[in-house]
Amino acid sequence: MNQQHQNERARIREAMDRLLTGQPVASDGSLTAKALAAEADVHRMALMKRHVDLKNEFYARVRKETPQTPESEIRLRATVAQLRKTVKNQKAEIEELRQQVTRLALAGAVLTQRADIPPQQAQAADNVIPFRPHVT
To answer: From which domain of life does this come (predicted)?
Structure first.
């Protein structure tokens, strides 16, 4: 490891401590990788690519040392809950549409069968008006 790499790692560790104690100097103080990179004055991609172990350590310390849930996790949990609700509603709608298709198919079959019966044999209720026969 060269000296620059070691300096970056040291700055990242110091930035971790400042963020976790709530004393940010160069960032907004949020407990994210973006804030950690800004606090350590390291490019965010350097943190994500070269110092993955430190980023993972930071998130582990956030979960362990702070009682709060990270904002990104809160947003993801809300999104997952909304998606589950959407899936549940769509499954109910699909089931309702399947039942409707079955009912319409049965109604079509009944109407087709009644069309084959001559009007004299069909006994309609008093309030039913039969369709006129289809002429081709």
So the answer is: Bacteria
